[in-house]
Automatic annotation (TrEMBL):
Keywords: Heme, Iron, Metal-binding, Monooxygenase, Oxidoreductase. Belongs to the cytochrome P450 family. One of its GO terms (molecular function) is monooxygenase activity. This is Cytochrome P450. SUPFAM superfamilies: Cytochrome P450. It holds the Pfam family p450.
């Protein structure tokens, strides 16, 4: 007999995963196929946004629905993506009330959720700080931290089980700390930030009910004791770093120090302590969380795709020989790059990009109302049968030849709000993958049931149990 939860929400999705001698279809929910009402749709989306999609949603199409009087528009066509994210960017620049409300407690008015004059003022500052021209300098830090992890992994007892997500989060948190903050984060502080943000994600609702009750801006999240504790764990670490910089104790080359100096030269920027903390927190959380998730998914994919793992190892040997891969090698690591790009296709770190219309508009043949939510969904776009051959298969080779259809591949968003740290994140992912894959084989623990889960970002539910074996 179905439980009350199943009667209200429906059964949990079936997770599909298929193995072949030279193919791998990684874990993803099966198509939603049964009838439901709008209440069930909202309740399912509160659990996980990946549950709700039907077969036809994975086509190049436009679709609208009205949920409790609110218009939701799904744009899953490259031309529509271009219209929303670039052509009419100013009308659709606002993040959804759900995303703004979900992150404002943690990030304040940080760049990721700001808009209007605040976004226009700070975007050039942050973009300059993480500009691709700075990546070679930051790359030395990436080499150093990944090398330290390789040294630690080499001392582990044989068969020692690790949580791959926690390992990759610790790696990327240390990298972003030394580049953004200019000093070592350390294991204790790294786990404070990682655990704090993990707890925060688990507590945040995937739907802002206030929006559907008539509040265009949604309602603030309930700041429960557990949520407050999670935020304080993150803020405690970042606040100390910002205070050190304001007191002149920061590294002269760090991103935060660059922001501090910009404020000193241009007081009109208004980057007070809270604003500096918000931008530092935004860069830190976006920089470490998304890359950690990408690397975790990459290990899962390679663990189940021996032909791809061999190609990675062969390329590293050909390009680097016995020496450790460096940032200078990244342009030559074509297959490693393809693995990361294919990972980002299958598991985009932010799988739903929702925007709120400022004023009435028209997308294709749909009249969009003011305050409507327009959703561009990389999870659907990247698996569209109209854009990709065998869209659910792991095939890094698809990124070795012709580039994807413009506006059909958007793991870092697209248009004016494209992630300013795109080059930083790609370089970091490729380099860390190469440094660790050169020395180790990473294996998912047998019997692990991997399930993608969409909260604020896309992670494997419960992490990823792995073992590492020296090559």
């Amino acid at each position: 007999m179905a439980s009350l939860r199943e009667r209200l929400i429906g059964p949990a999705p079936v997770i599909v995963e298929e193995h072949g001698p030279d193919s791998f279809v990684p874990a993803h929910p099966a198509f939603f196929a049964t009838k439901r009402n709008h209440l069930q749709l909202v309740l399912q989306a509160r659990q996980d946004f990946l549950w709700i999609w039907r077969r036809n949603d994975y086509r190049n199409r436009y679709h609208q629905m009205n949920v409790f009087g609110r218009q939701l528009v799904i744009v899953n066509h490259p031309e529509g993506v271009k219209y929303v994210m670039a052509t009419r960017h100013e009308n659709f620049e606002r993040k959804s009330p759900q995303m703004r409300r979900a992150l404002e407690y943690l990030l304040g008015d940080g760049l990721f959720i700001s808009d209007g004059s605040t976004w226009r003022q700070r975007r050039p500052l942050v973009a300059d700080i993480v500009h691709k021209n700075r990546v070679p300098t930051f790359g030395r830090v990436m080499e150093e931290v990944a090398g330290e992890m390789a040294t630690r992994w080499a001392t582990l007892p044989e068969g020692r089980e690790l949580n791959g997500l926690v390992e990759m989060a610790a790696l990327t948190a240390e990298i972003i700390s030394r580049t953004v903050f200019g000093n070592d984060l350390g294991e204790a502080n790294a786990h404070e930030v990682i655990d704090g943000f993990s707890g925060y994600q688990n507590l945040i609702d995937s739907i802002n009910i206030g929006y559907f009750l008539g509040f265009d801006e949604g309602l603030p999240v309930w700041r429960s004791r557990k949520l407050t504790h999670s935020v304080r764990r993150v803020h405690k670490v970042i606040d100390k770093v910002v205070d050190d910089h304001l007191a002149g104790r920061g590294d002269n080359n760090s991103m935060v120090e660059l922001l501090v100096r910009r404020q000193q030269r241009n007081p009109e920027l208004g980057l007070d302590r809270d604003a500096l903390r918000n931008e530092a927190a935004t860069i830190f959380m976006a920089g470490h969380e998304t890359t950690a998730a990408t690397l975790t998914w990459a290990w899962y994919l390679l663990s189940n795709s021996p032909w791809a793992e061999r190609a990675v190892h062969d390329e590293i040997a050909r390009v680097c020989g016995d020496r450790r891969p460096s940032v200078d090698d990244v342009p030559a690591l074509d297959y490693c790059r393809a693995v990361i790009e294919e990972t980002l296709r299958l598991y985009p770190p932010v799988p739903i990009l929702a925007r709120q219309a400022k004023e009435a508009d028209r997308i294709a043949d749909i009249d969009v109302k003011p305050a409507a939510i327009v959703m561009v969904v990389p999870w659907l776009l990247h698996r569209s049968v109209d854009l990709w051959e065998q869209p659910n298969n792991f095939r890094p080779e698809r990124f070795l030849g012709q580039r994807p259809v413009p506006y059909g591949y958007i793991p870092f968003a697209i248009g004016p709000r494209i992630c300013p740290g795109l080059n930083f994140g790609l370089t970091e992912s490729i380099l860390c993958l190469a440094i660790l894959a050169q020395k180790f084989r990473v294996r998912v623990v047998p019997g692990t049931k991997v399930e993608p889960r969409c909260r604020l970002t896309l992670r494997p539910r419960g992490g990823l149990p792995i073992t590492v074996t020296p090559r």
